[in-house]
């Protein structure tokens, strides 16, 4: 597709997006750990570079107090949890218990991105939806993601739909996709009747085959996003970029994105990079949530507007007691996160 056609599609996509979404918000995945026990991990993934270094996988799992502290802070600053995410290696029981406790402290249902799991083992009353890690639709997908058969993911998402759950997929751009692959993605979205697509720009990881490969360009990224928006006007589109690609944000919002994701919150909150991110968004759309307000982060004041809507969350009494019992540890973790930000900003 020539540049003029892409830009014309972007112009149309921006109008459609603003018609159906009156603000842009931040989201962030809540990771449970850094180990994946897939026999054949994805070729681009950071976890694939760590697997042989981790002698005790249990030690690669985050503490519950850390997970819950982050969930509380994300709600405080108006960042929705994109999903609760983990590499393969957590049982359904573990996933369910953590999801219940996260939903309880956030007072809202959660999305899961924890692989193909048995939904019969999950309390679906606290689950809004599930995400399938499709990652890419390129011809050699099975070589790139050998441990994630596409048909299994599709079957899982269709079963989730039957249970009235929302569904989404992740797509990483920079894995060798071509323009003609866009039609494959559009067909997949239609086949699965998806509610959400999460795009990421590949952040090449040292030790992977993509370490020295170029990632997606801004124009290519815009083409993928606008193509999805034009075909599916009401679908939720999240776009993730790394700190070195902040200038992509406003073009991606113009292309149809209504959620910005991926950023390492606590390492750049309140810094010049965070102000740059906010400026990129506010130039083209209304922003909910903050990346810069220190008083909000500290809990000294509340956001006037937030993407969160409190819900009546009912969970297992043992999990509720566990949260209450961890309150002291959670508060310490919250203070630790906040103090690390303040220390960095006040240097």
From TrEMBL:
Residues 16-234 form the Radical SAM core domain. GO terms for molecular function: 2 iron, 2 sulfur cluster binding; 4 iron, 4 sulfur cluster binding; biotin synthase activity; metal ion binding. GO terms for biological process: biotin biosynthetic process. Keywords: 4Fe-4S, Iron, Iron-sulfur, Metal-binding, S-adenosyl-L-methionine. InterPro entries: Aldolase_TIM, Biotin_synth/BioAB, Elp3/MiaA/NifB-like_rSAM, rSAM, rSAM_sf. PANTHER family: BIOTIN SYNTHASE, BIOTIN SYNTHASE, MITOCHONDRIAL. This is Radical SAM core domain-containing protein. The lineage of its organism: Archaea, Methanobacteriati, Methanobacteriota, Methanomada group, Methanococci.
